[in-house]
């Protein structure tokens, strides 16, 4: 875990300190200042096998350009509605699975378990997203990822293989309402802002496919997606990987699994060689683990 | 003319006058009709006789001297009078003549007061005459064989006109044989003063009734009689209503027409039901008594028909109706959508006004009012009765208000509605009206409450708070909610306890549940004024959760240094896990969160 010291931007501190929300003087607008965590991101830094399951480790980076801490990461693990498998081995303060609440669930989720940092809370949201959240203290978080900080101890455990998944990061923004006493009609003129108004979203990888569902065409789609998402930063590398995968596909079509295995292994070798940060490497963590795990699955079934 | 002849003539004349007077017995103006009206208008048709006593004294004059005639009395109309003659006339009575007993026996002998009368010429001698002209007279002679010496001689007769009294002369004896034979001795003579007194006397006709105070519809028997017991033949029976008490009673059937001396009829009180009153009337009988038409009557008091009473019945269709739930708005929640107002519950109200005799009381003013039952609904601060909060409306439209006065329809009914306001509790609906000077009323209690509220019981997973402060004392039972809310709160408390204690379900820190709803729901008037701020804690879906934690069994903890805060996000997450839709809302007083378990509108 890598944490930088908590340092609140002055505007947020002023806001969050108002446990008793101050009544504003005339003209003292706005009540809800804007914040940004626009540059923050989440990425899967490793997918490892342990006890027959895949462990997805995520890193959240909150750039110093942010003026609020990041207090939660949610990664999409949704599955068709009704699919609510029991929780896989989990450590930490897991709160519950909202997808099991039929009246609220809008999706199911793939089999998951979580490892949670100390005092962080885990929750499976009604839309099938898996969420890690910093502990709270009153209206604000007690342990957010501050601007310029990061942490990568957020682990997701699953039997499912990775696919491209959205993520969502929320700022540590006090849930305050309202500037006037309850029932005061002036409250109705206030544009209340919530953390969701300042969220940061993007794509990462997460458990998506049952092992048996992984095919060469699916893998080809994932490769294309990785290229489109700039997880493989060199078009030439994309092309090279696509050729190898296509050759494997053709070999399989010819009924030559041996040739296919060779092509897939070559692909894995190239991934390994290109995995790492620019400028020397051209495959990011997300792209690497997305393709590596699925191709290895293909190889294991040949 | 001899006295006897004169008397007969007078009697004939009297008889003729009586016959004549039967056509106009008491009526001074013959063209006034009808008779009944005349009777009614008469001050006292059976009143006392004309007043006055007339006395005439005829002086002593010695033997044989006549006196008068002297005019001494006058009656305009036929009057029954008592004529009293006093004063002795001394006499000498000869022995009975033995030679002609038959003649003796056929002689008409008269004896005046103290006097003796001729037996020879069939004339009353030594007598006192009282003659009324032209309509009657009196000859105080009595036919009797009795040889009595009486000082006072009294008779009652009907007279009219001017009366004269005189005393006859006493002629000399025409024969000594007649008086004192064989001695010449006066047969009779006067001595002393003769007094003639004429005094009107009461009528002879009397009407009595077997019961002078009866209930309406009772049969009553009237009887006409004479004091002397002689039979009476009634000409007509007439009922005359009294002039007091508004309408008048009267026979309901069989007004007697017969000439019997009795009349049996039923009497009915005719006063209106709304203003029943005792009525008095009189039954009169007309009858000819001794040639004089007399009218006599008797009063009867007739009570109203069995005193009926106004009775009100108030019926309400629903015993429990919901309070009005004002519109609510939670800034930042529900995408800014406002919870719409839920109108107050409505129950049909029917007032039926009837008299005890079963008749509908139409057109009666009935006032509908409502009163709040002290302490009901959880409003412990309200210890005295006070007006209720709901309102009435007649029919099904219009603005409800209370009190409301409306008139009963032809069926004695008022159909309306009672509409609840935002205050929960019990209201006593009352319909009242005046019956005479008395108020009659009926009441029904209607519960104004959110159906299904239950009290949240104690648990080691949370602490119930909210009654520690002075304001909190206003509502000592402040944890009422709908069943699904209670279930959710139990679950929230368990999950929260797990979280706030670092994964320990039995850890020391627990939630503090403050105000939810009061017993009946409706406005939770924190300041005991039946007004918000707790405008949202009115339907069993809201709860205030302290933003600091308590220790299990440790009672309430107030925010302050050292108090362990409750994370808004933790509460939000555990609420999110409940099957019941809900959200957490920070309330600006800085010591609690507000949780509402209700889908957004």
In short:
The complex is a heterodimer of chains A (302) and B (601). By secondary structure, chain A is of the alpha+beta class.
Notes on the protein architecture:
The complex is a heterodimer of chains A (302) and B (601). By secondary structure, chain A is an alpha+beta fold. Helices cover 24% and strands 27% of the residues of chain A. The longest helix of chain A has 19 residues, at 235-253. In chain A, 48% of the residues are buried. Chain B contains five helices and 32 strands. Chain B has helices spanning 3-21, 35-41, 101-106, 483-500, 568-576, and strands at 54-58, 67-86, 128-134, 136-138, 152-167, 194-200, 206-209, 213-214, 218-225, 234-241, 250-253, 262-268, 279-289, 292-302, 310-316, 320-321, 346-355, 365-372, 386-387, 391-394, 404-407, 413-419, 425-435, 438-448, 454-455, 462-464, 480-481, 509-513, 542-546, 550-551, 583-586, 592-596. Chain B has a six-stranded antiparallel sheet. Chain B is rod-shaped, with a radius of gyration of 52 Å. Residues 1-49, 90-126, 135-149 and 172-189 of chain B have low confidence and may be disordered. Chains A and B meet through strand 5 and strand 10 of A and helix 4, helix 5 and strand 31 of B.
- Helix percent band of chain B: under 10%
In whole angstroms, the N-to-C terminal distance of chain B is 129 Å
Q: What integer is the average pLDDT of chain B?
A: 75
Spatial strand arrangement across the major sheet of chain B:
1-6-2-5-3-4
Strand order in the largest sheet of chain A: 5-8-9-3-13-14
Mean pLDDT of chain A: 88
> What is the helix tally of chain A?
5
Compile the SSE list and pairings.
The complex is a heterodimer of chains A (302) and B (601).
Chain A: H1 10-16, E1 41-50, E2 53-61, E3 70-76, E4 78-79, E5 93-97, E6 108-109, E7 113-115, E8 121-124, E9 129-133, E10 136-137, E11 140-141, E12 150-158, E13 161-171, E14 200-209, H2 216-228, H3 235-253, H4 257-274, H5 285-300
Chain B: H1 3-21, H2 35-41, E1 54-58, E2 67-86, H3 101-106, E3 128-134, E4 136-138, E5 152-167, E6 194-200, E7 206-209, E8 213-214, E9 218-225, E10 234-241, E11 250-253, E12 262-268, E13 279-289, E14 292-302, E15 310-316, E16 320-321, E17 346-355, E18 365-372, E19 386-387, E20 391-394, E21 404-407, E22 413-419, E23 425-435, E24 438-448, E25 454-455, E26 462-464, E27 480-481, H4 483-500, E28 509-513, E29 542-546, E30 550-551, H5 568-576, E31 583-586, E32 592-596
Parallel strand pairs in B: 8-14, 16-24, 26-28
Antiparallel strand pairs in B: 1-6, 2-5, 2-6, 3-4, 3-5, 7-9, 9-12, 10-13, 11-12, 13-14, 15-17, 17-22, 18-19, 18-21, 18-23, 20-22, 23-24, 25-27, 28-30, 29-32, 31-32
């Amino acid at each position: 875990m890598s944490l930088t010291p908590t340092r609140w931007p002055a505007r947020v501190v002023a806001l969050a300190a108002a446990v008793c929300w101050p009544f504003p003087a005339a003209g003292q607008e706005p009540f809800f200042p804007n914040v940004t965590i626009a540059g923050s991101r989440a990425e899967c830094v490793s997918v490892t096998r342990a006890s027959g399951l895949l462990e997805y480790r995520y890193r959240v980076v909150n750039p110093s350009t942010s003026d609020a801490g990041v207090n939660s990461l949610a990664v999409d693990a949704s599955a068709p509605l009704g699919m609510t498998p029991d929780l896989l081995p989990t450590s930490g303060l897991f709160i519950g699975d909202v997808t099991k609440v039929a009246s609220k669930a809008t999706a199911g989720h793939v089999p998951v378990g979580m490892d949670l940092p100390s005092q962080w809370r885990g929750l499976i949201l009604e839309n099938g997203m898996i969420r890690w959240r910093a502990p709270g203290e009153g209206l604000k978080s007690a342990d957010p990822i501050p601007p310029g900080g990061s942490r990568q101890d957020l682990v997701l455990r699953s039997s499912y293989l990775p696919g491209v998944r959205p993520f969502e990061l929320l700022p540590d923004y006090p849930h305050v309402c309202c500037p006037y006493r309850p029932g005061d009609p002036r409250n109705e003129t206030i544009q209340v802002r919530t953390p969701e108004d300042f969220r940061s979203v993007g794509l990462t990888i997460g458990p998506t496919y049952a092992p048996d569902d992984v095919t060469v065409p699916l893998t080809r789609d994932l490769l294309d997606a990785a290229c489109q998402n700039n997880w493989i930063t060199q078009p030439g590398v994309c092309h090279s990987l696509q050729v190898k995968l296509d050759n494997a596909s053709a070999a399989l079509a010819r009924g030559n699994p041996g040739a296919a295995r060779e092509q897939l292994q070559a692909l894995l070798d190239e991934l390994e060689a290109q995995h790492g940060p620019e400028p020397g490497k051209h495959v990011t963590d997300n792209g690497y683990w997305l393709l590596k795990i699925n191709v290895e699955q293909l190889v294991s079934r040949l | 003319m001899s006295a006897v002849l004169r008397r007969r003539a007078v009697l004939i004349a009297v008889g003729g006058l009586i016959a004549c007077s039967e056509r106009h017995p008491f009526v001074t103006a013959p063209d006034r009709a009808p008779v009944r009206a005349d009777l009614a208008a008469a001050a006292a048709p059976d009143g006392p006789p004309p007043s006055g006593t007339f006395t005439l004294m005829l002086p002593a004059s010695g033997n044989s001297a006549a006196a008068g005639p002297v005019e001494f009395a006058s009656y305009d109309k036929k009057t029954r009078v008592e004529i009293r003659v006093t004063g002795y006339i001394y006499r000498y009575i000869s022995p009975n003549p033995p030679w002609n007993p038959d003649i003796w026996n056929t002689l008409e002998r008269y004896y005046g007061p103290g006097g003796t009368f001729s037996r020879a010429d069939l004339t009353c001698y030594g007598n006192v005459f009282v003659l009324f002209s032209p309509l009657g007279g009196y000859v105080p002679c009595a036919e009797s064989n009795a040889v009595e010496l009486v000082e006072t001689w009294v008779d009652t007769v009907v007279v009219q006109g001017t009366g004269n009294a005189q005393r006859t002369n006493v002629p000399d004896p025409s024969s000594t044989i007649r008086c004192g034979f064989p001695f010449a001795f006066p047969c009779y003579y006067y001595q002393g003063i003769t007094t003639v007194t004429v005094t009107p006397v009461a009528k002879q006709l009397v009407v009595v009734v077997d019961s002078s105070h009866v209930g309406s519809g009772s049969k009553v028997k009237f009887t006409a009689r004479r004091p002397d017991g002689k039979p009476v033949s009634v000409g007509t029976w007439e009922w005359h209503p009294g002039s007091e008490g508004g309408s008048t009673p009267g026979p309901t059937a069989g007004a007697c027409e017969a000439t019997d001396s009795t009349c049996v009829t039923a009497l009915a009180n005719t006063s209106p039901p709304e203003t029943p009153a005792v009525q008095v009337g009189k039954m009169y009988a007309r009858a000819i008594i001794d040639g004089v038409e007399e009218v006599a009557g008797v009063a009867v008091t007739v009570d109203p028909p069995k005193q009926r009473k106004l009775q009100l019945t108030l019926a309400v269709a629903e015993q429990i109706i919901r309070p009005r739930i004002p519109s609510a708005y939670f800034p930042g929640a529900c995408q800014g959508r406002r919870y719409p107002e839920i109108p107050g519950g409505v129950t049909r109200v029917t007032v039926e006004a009837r008299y005890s005799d079963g008749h509908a009381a139409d057109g009666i003013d009935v006032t509908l009012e409502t009163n709040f039952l002290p302490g009901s609904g959880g409003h412990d601060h309200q210890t005295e009765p006070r007006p209720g909060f709901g309102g009435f409306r007649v029919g099904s439209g219009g603005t409800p208000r209370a009190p409301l006065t409306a008139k009963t329809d032809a069926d004695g009914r008022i159909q309306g509605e009672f509409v609840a306001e935002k205050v929960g509790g019990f209201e006593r609906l009352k319909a009242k009206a005046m019956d005479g000077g008395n108020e009659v009323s009926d009441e029904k209690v209607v519960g104004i409450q959110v159906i299904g509220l239950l009290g949240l019981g104690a648990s080691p997973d949370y602490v119930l708070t909210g009654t520690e402060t002075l304001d909190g004392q206003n509502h000592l039972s402040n944890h009422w909610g709908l069943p699904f809310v209670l279930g959710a709160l139990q679950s929230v408390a368990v999950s929260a306890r797990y979280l706030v204690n670092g994964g320990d379900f039995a850890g020391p820190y627990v939630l503090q549940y403050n105000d939810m709803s009061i017993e009946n729901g409706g406005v939770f008037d924190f300041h005991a004024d039946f007004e918000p701020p707790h405008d949202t804690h009115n339907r069993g879906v809201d709860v205030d959760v302290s933003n600091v934690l308590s220790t299990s069994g440790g009672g309430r903890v107030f925010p302050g240094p050292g108090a362990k805060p409750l994370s808004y996000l933790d509460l939000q997450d555990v609420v999110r896990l409940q099957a019941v839709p809900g959200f957490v809302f920070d309330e600006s007083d800085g010591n609690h969160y507000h949780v509402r378990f209700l889908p957004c509108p």
